[in-house]
Amino acid sequence: MKKNKVLKWVGGFVLLLLLLLVATPFLFKGKVQNLVVETINKNLNANVAFDEVDLSLFKSFPKATIVIKNLSIVNKAPFEGDTLFKASDIGLRMSVMELFKGKNTPMHIEGIGVSDAFVNIVVNKEGITNYDIAIVDEEESSEKDDNAPFSLSLNKYVLENIAVSYVDEASKMAFTIKDLYHNGSGNLAANVLDLDTETKAILSFEKDGTRFLNEVKLGLKAVIGMDLNTNTYVFKDNEALINQLPLRFDGSLKLLEDGQAYDLSFGTPDSSFKNFLGLVPEVYAGNISNVKTTGDFRVEGRVKGLLTDTTIPKLDIQLASSNASFQYPDLPKSVEKIILDAKIINETGLMNDTYVLLNKLSFQIDQDVFNASANIRNLSGNALVDAKLNGVINLANVTKAYPVKLEKPLTGILKANVATRFDMESVEKNQYQNIQNSGTISLTGFQFESDEMAKPLQIEEAALTFNPSQVKLNSLRLKTGTTDVSATGTLDNFYGFMFSKQNLKGNFDVRSNNFVVSDVLKADDKAAKTSESSEEAVSKSVSEPLKIPAFLDCTIQANAKQVVYDDLKLQNVVGTLIIKDQKALLKNMSTDVFDGKIAFDGSISTKQTVPDFDMTLGMKALDIGKAFTGLDVLKAIAPIAGVLNGKINSTVTLQGKLDSKTMSPVMSSLTGDLLGQLLNTTIKPENSKLLSTLTDKVDFIDLEKLNLNNLKAHLIFKEGKVQVQPFDLKYQDVAVVVQGEHGFDQSINYNLDFNVPVKYLGDDVEGLLAKLSPSDINKLDAIPVKVGLLGSFSKPQVTTDLSKVVQGVTNQILEQQKRQLLDKGKDALEDLLAGKKKEVKSDGENIPEEPKGVKEEVKNKVEQGLKDLFGKKK
């Protein structure tokens, strides 16, 4: 019985405890959430939001855990709308008893955890920081606020998956940290403690647009002795990794009011040459654990002194290796006789007195030896650079000795013997008299192949000569597929481009016997081969635009005997290409094509989000069929290929947008005009649905016999349509005026104004005309007939309005008949007067009217004649 009572009591206690663990979060959740809101409002001048605050006793029992979900801190002016901080979870760990404290007694937080967070720090050009958002109460700034809802009594904290972005707009400096993991444990409530830490991160650093560190992996396990009374931090047991390079630190760091005092030393734990390979990121160096090495490599450094606004610590950092070698286990060749002697020195504590010395770098692969040396002084001022490069590298051996990840192996012999000495101020001001520069670089037998390239690239020879003012391209001969290119030229500010962010200026003469575009540009299976004719094409081209590099400022004199683009072959292409400010300017370009010649000038600009172009083309004696089949733009402007046979002279101006992927015109954006003259041209109406339909409707014109020689026309294109200005045609004694428009969507809307002599109206009408004298027939006007062409080129519709025409012709014939009768009445009256007969009226009143039905008869015969002319052939 007693045993059962004990079990019941224990069971009841456990059940009660579980109920308390479940119920307590609900009882205190409101209180905790109010405390979080109170803390935020009291301390932060920013827009703060979070989804909810959870309280749990299960996660770390017997401790309580408060979790703030999806917290975000958004700046107010002057960084309005910028996100300073956001985190998926922020956990605060404390004793359960802290929940039962009174309102005015702070809860002591023992642990903090932050996961999946982003920190965005910005310093603007005025030096204002976006993280300065703390509310300062001047009345209490000198006193500790004992009434704060929370106080820190930390013994552990964890930061997991944190990303940090820091941008200083004033100094043009930026760094990013990603995949940051950091934890620390120790009695942080004490003033003197040992903090046990572990840190992992990936760091990138950029200054003045130059990236000095690119995703460098950092790792540090360290016990740091902390004396908060003196703000002194001492490195105790520690292991550090920079990429795969192991380091150990000794010494201390002390925080001062106006800076920091450093007394640190560091070095590699041993002298294995693997340490050198460890400097290289793993993605490039691969796994170095099984690499066979000989010789040594040492990193030793001392940093001592003050870091303030005007001073830096003194530096003595050395990297050294002598007679070393390495060979990867799965590669056939080794890199041998490696010598490295490099130093970073500052002996005064002044930034500008820092200098970098590369006294010697040397290595050998097979029989090829490569040597380099350099020194850089006045780093923060007018930097002085002195460097030499001398050696030979067989590129085929590089991938045999080092795990370079290439899709295809390299071949070629690179030779270099270059010496340079310059200061940055002379480079920036183009003061070439202060630059000492000499030597040569050559590359022969180079071959490179990649899946991203259309065809393998072969450089038979490339030779550069360096002098103070320019780099001269003595020769370049390359092949790819069936394409050959040779070039010579100069680069006028090579150092300004390399070291001072100036544009790369140059002049080149480029020649080719055969240039096949598909050898150079790989076809994109996903890219549309034809340009789109809607505004959607303009918007689509916004993504991933093709850009002309902004740094290029060069002039190219081009001469190609043949250029092949798909099925289009251009012969004797000559002209000038000027590339500047993301714009390509074509000047005095000409080519033989389509059995004639095209000369053109214009420009293509990719500076805007959507590229545009402006072209003027002069076409002389082009074969119409070939030209309007081979050029998509001409085909869209005038779909006459196969319909007209002959030659054309034309001047075309074109402006519009380009598809940023295919660089082909977006037809809906096209504006411009075309002035054209046809030469020795004939028509094949059977090749055009439009002309075939018109032939069926018009009885008296044989389009194949229409004389188009020297016909001139003016076309204007805008808003997706081609407007044809009025022009005259003549078929025997029938005059025709043509005008109207068609769209790039193949829609048509044309008017043909015929002036048809009455003799074409048929036998019945000729019978009526026989009753008139020749002079009266000549007085009849030609019949104006309007014919409309609507629909599309593939489904044309021919319309006429014959009712007005019939009425007009009928009235003309009747009027001539009336005049004839009137003339007869006058003659009879004259005869009567001559015979002294009774006077009769001569005002026409006594002239008999037409017999009833005569007018209707004339009208019917005219109408039938017109229907025969403009009706469907039987």
Name some characteristics of this structure.
874 residues; alpha+beta; 38-stranded mixed sheet; 38 strands; elongated; disordered N terminus; AsmA-related; AsmA-like C-terminal region
Outline the structure in words.
Among the domains are: 1-134 and 147-171, no CATH class; 774-784 and 800-870, no CATH class. With 874 residues, the protein is α+β, with helices and mostly antiparallel strands. It has a 38-stranded mixed β-sheet that branches. It starts with a helix and ends with a helix. The protein contains 15 helices and 38 strands. The model is unreliable at 1-28, 140-144, 525-543 and 836-849 (pLDDT under 50).
Question: Secondary structure elements and their pairing?
Answer:
Layout lengths: L1 H42 L3 E3 L2 E9 L2 E12 L8 E13 L11 E17 L26 E19 L4 E13 L6 E16 L2 E18 L4 E11 L2 E12 L2 E9 L6 H6 L2 H4 L6 E16 L6 E14 L7 E12 L8 E11 L2 E10 L6 E11 H7 L9 E13 H5 L7 E13 L8 E10 L4 E10 L2 E9 L2 H7 L3 E9 L2 E2 H4 L14 H6 L11 E14 L2 E13 L2 E11 L2 E10 L6 E12 H7 L1 H6 L6 E14 L13 E13 L5 H9 L14 E7 L2 E11 L2 E10 L4 E9 L6 H8 L3 H6 L3 E9 L4 E5 L1 H33 L19 H17 L4
Parallel strand pairs: 5-6, 24-26, 25-26
Antiparallel strand pairs: 1-3, 2-3, 3-4, 4-5, 6-7, 7-8, 8-9, 9-10, 10-11, 11-12, 12-13, 13-14, 14-15, 15-16, 16-17, 17-18, 18-19, 19-20, 20-21, 21-22, 22-23, 23-24, 26-27, 27-28, 28-29, 29-30, 30-31, 31-32, 32-33, 33-34, 34-35, 35-36, 36-37, 37-38
| Fraction of residues in helix | 10-25%
Question: Quick check: average pLDDT?
Answer: 81
Structural class: alpha+beta
The main β sheet shows up as:
38 strands, mixed
Overall body shape: elongated
If helices are DSSP runs of H or I spanning 4 or more residues, what is the number of helices? 15
Radius of gyration: 45 Å
What is the first-to-last residue Cα distance? Answer: 122 Å
**In percent, how much strand structure appears in the residues?**
over 45%
Number of E-type strands: 38
Any low-confidence stretches, pLDDT <50, length ≥5?
Answer: 1-28, 140-144, 525-543, 836-849
